[in-house]
Amino acid sequence: MKFRLPALPLAMIATLAFVPAPVVAQQHHPWDDKTLSPDVRADMVIKEMTLDEKIQLVHGTGWGALREGDPIPPRSNKGAGYTEGIPRLGIPDINLADSAVGVRLAATESRYATLLPSTLGAASSWDVQGAQLYGSVIGRELRAQGYNMSIGGGVDITREPRNGRNFEYAGEDPVLAGTMTGNLMKGLQSQQIMGDIKHYAYNDQETGREILSAHVDKKAGRESDLLAFQIAIGIAQPAGVMCSYNRVDSVYACENDYLLNDVLKKDFGFKGWVLSDWEATHSTVKAALAGLDMEMPGLDYFGAPLKQAVEKGEVPLSRVEDMDHRILRSMFAVGVVDNPPMPRSVVDPFKGLEDAQHIEEESIVLLKNANGALPLKSTVRSVAIIGSHADKGILSGGGSAQVDPPGGNVIDPRPGEPKWQETVYFPSSPMKYIRKQAPEAKIEFNEGTDAASAAALAKSSDVAIVFVNQVMHEGEDAKTLSLPGNQDELVSAVAAANPHTIVVLETGGPVTMPWAEKVEGILSTWYPGIGGGEAIANVLFGTVNPSGKLPVTFAKRDADLPHPEIAGMNLKEGPDHKLPPFDVNYTEGAKVGYKWYESQHIQPLFPFGFGLSYTTYAYSDLKVKEGGKEVSFSIKNTGSRAGAEIAEVYGALPKAAGEAYKRLVAFDRVDLAPGESKTVTLKIDPLYLSVFLVDKDAFELLPGEYRLTVGPSSDKTPLEQTVSIRK
Ligand code: BGC
Questions:
Q1: Both ends of the chain: CA-CA distance in Å?
Q2: CA 278 to ligand 1 center in whole angstroms
Q3: CA angle 95, 99, 104 (to 5 degrees)
Q4: Helices within 542-632 (DSSP H only)
Q5: Cα of 524 to ligand 1 centre, how many Å?
């Protein structure tokens, strides 16, 4: 096989087996009948449950493996969360794992998990099948490790481009983010593992996330953040939705009646259960009545206090049974009762690597390629590789999305899992694969800590490749969009020394590039995953033709953002080490990302939807059909290399909508051989062209003239047609 797992120690492969005891239905129960609907099966179980069992199913058992010294229940799989099942009724335990970009906490149990590219990266592929593949890798590995639920599935849109968790999400546009995350979770649940969508809602920054109150007007919220959730939930039908830490309009998200009952359960028709983020439950009666269905990770509010509240009549028993119903029907619907994960298999790291690399190769965005600098030729005589430990590996994102590196952090190898918020590099060395691509070349590495010495090496080389990074993790935001440390200075110094400078970005999200004019090439690789080293080399040398496009706008400067400073960033912690409560007024409303730049007439550094290729494409023949519900157009590969072009369809609403921006309403990724033309036909969901009318509490398509445009990027839409939509 072509792929080799880099530096996975043999000792580790030998210890991949593990033995958690699954709870399996041994006895026959009437609800084992798979021909019955999940809802009927759930109700049959509920009829047999005692009040204590009904309560037991709606909370976790404590921090367990996440907090050193906390007790770990005997059947827990040692993941982020655990809810005890009901063995006498054949209901398995729920073992939940953090798994945003791969399964977390594998190393401590001598297990292996594949690190995928960041989900923001995968969103750059705009590949719906790729998103499903992404989810299926995680689902496969969760199953092999004995988990039956993922708590990945982040879809908070990039309202705040400095948010420390953007790498776990899917970009700034609700249609792209919702579609990609929904398909990711669909792929995950296809492995009969329960999925989750999070963090609901407006958890758009980490600074003060536990106390801030987000304010977005109702209309704007439904057309932006909440639309991303609506789309993802509609596609995936996930078992769970995790409510977030923050408050929304001064009410905690996990006890917010409007968000949970009215929007999520009633309007979106969500049939699964709402679980709280870890310690994001703040009350018993209020939360239960507002729609929270499960407290995580413990039982402070939904354990004994919930039972008492039921006995006192403060929470109707029917509400607790509704919680149980939502949990049980999801377990039946996804298949974890009928086909529980068995401790029978081990993760196949080679398959995981192959999939991760494939996804990364589709996700890398070529942002600049002056003078045909790329692809590099294998006959290049000398290459200077500079910075970001590119001799050893690739950067990963931290926090609860951290995957354990096989063999330890390559820049600081130690056994076991990395420390919280540690900067972790994985063993996938770009330099090693660059060597493979140019075997005759003199390839030297410079750490990049001293700009002058890096520039000296660059000067004596044909080409300089500078790797720059932005370390991001849960719990903290970047203060600015600037690359941290001396990296801007480093790139400028190298570019001044060698005109053939290529910059490779490994970042959690968008960054500024004051040196962009001075370098020949720029690649955004996000956090590239375990196959990243080889994927990067393949794109640099043209073995792979880059095809990714930006799921987020790259601004020129922080001052161009709707909020030049992150709210709460300058507040001082009190004696309890906590920030005082504060408000975040998202006055930009639905104008997130490109919609902001377009409406404010601000030129970004690189626009949403932008990305170059080693070939060229031409668009023609736009036809709008079905009264605006369908478009068709042609794309031709006009260059000499095969490639995949991402075509983007935007809609501008009639004047009455008062929107000074267009919306992404459809997209497709099209493979094209050199010279080949294809007709692309895409449906447009009327929801994506609709406005939310607060007085009617509903979306509506306004009558009037809609301008539909099609092209390769949000700032370049060569095809255009207006369609009149009447009621
Ligand atoms: C994060 C969640 C995560 C949970 C469990 C929280 O701090 O916000 O995304 O799933 O911890 O690790």
A1: 58
A2: 6
A3: 80
A4: 594-600
A5: 27
d(CA 418, CA 406): 11
Q: Is 43 exposed, middle or buried (0-12, 13-18, 19+ CB in 10 A)?
A: middle
Instruction: Divide the 727 residues of the chain into consecutive groups of 10 and give the mean pLDDT of each group.
Output: 38 39 67 98 98 98 94 95 97 98 90 96 98 98 96 98 98 98 98 98 97 97 98 98 98 98 98 98 98 98 98 98 99 98 83 98 98 97 98 98 94 85 96 98 98 98 98 97 98 98 98 98 98 98 98 98 96 87 97 98 98 98 96 98 98 97 98 98 98 97 97 98 91
- What the block records as the tokens of 46 is 């509920």
Q: Is 98 in the pocket of ligand 1 (CB under 6 A)?
A: yes
What are the structure tokens assigned to 131, written together?
A: 């998103």
**Total count of residues recorded for the chain:** 727
**Phi, psi (deg, nearest 5) at residue 176:** -65, -50
The protein residue with its alpha carbon nearest to ligand 1, atom 7, reads 278
Q: In sequence order, what are the residues at sequence separation of 6 or more whose Cβ sits closer than 8 angstroms to the Cβ of residue 330?
A: 38, 194, 239, 240, 271, 272, 273
Does ligand 1 lie within 6 Å of residue 105's CB atom?
Answer: no
Say if residues 101 and 115 touch (Cβ distance below 8 Å). Answer: yes
Rounded CA-CA distance 206/154 in Å is 14
What number of other Cβ atoms are within 10 A of residue 712's Cβ? 23
Q: Examine residue 375 and say whether the peptide bond preceding it is cis (omega within 30 degrees of 0).
A: yes
Q: Distance between CA atoms of 156 and 669, rounded to whole angstroms?
A: 23
Nearest-CA neighbor of 527 among 162, 168, 38, 241?
A: 168
Q: What is the DSSP letter of 63?
A: S
Measured from the CB, is residue 200 less than 6 Å from ligand 1? no
Cβ(196) to ligand 1 under 6 A? no
| Nearest atom in ligand 1 to 475's CA | 7
Question: Six-digit token pair at 120?
Answer: 């923001």
Which atom of ligand 1 is nearest the CA belonging to 203?
A: 8
At 607, list the tokens.
Answer: 């626009």
Q: Please report the DSSP string for 629-687 in residue order.
A: TEEEEEEEE-SSS-EEEEEEEEEE--GGG--SS-EEEEEEEEEE-TT-EEEEEEE--GG
CA of 565 to the centre of ligand 1 (A): 25
DSSP annotation of 399 reads: G
Could you give the 3-state DSSP secondary structure of residue 312? Answer: coil
CA of 401 to the centre of ligand 1 (A): 8
Burial class (CB in 10 A: 0-12, 13-18, 19+), 156: buried
- How many whole angstroms from 430 Cα to the centroid of ligand 1? 31
Which ligand 1 atom sits closest to the C-alpha of 98? 10
Complete domains list, the chain, with CATH: 35-334 (3.20.20.300), 364-544 (3.40.50.1700), 610-725 (2.60.40.10)
Cα 400 to middle of ligand 1, angstroms: 6
**Is the minimum distance from the CB of 400 to ligand 1 under 6 angstroms?**
yes
Q: SS3 string of 690-717?
A: CEEECCCCEEECCCEEEEEEEECECCEC
Coil, strand or helix: which one is 38? helix
The answer, yes or no, to whether any atom of ligand 1 lies below 6 A from the CB of 84, is no
Per residue, the 3-state secondary structure of 191-216, as one string, reads CCCECEEEEECCCCCCCCCCCCEEEC
Helices (H), 542-651: 594-600
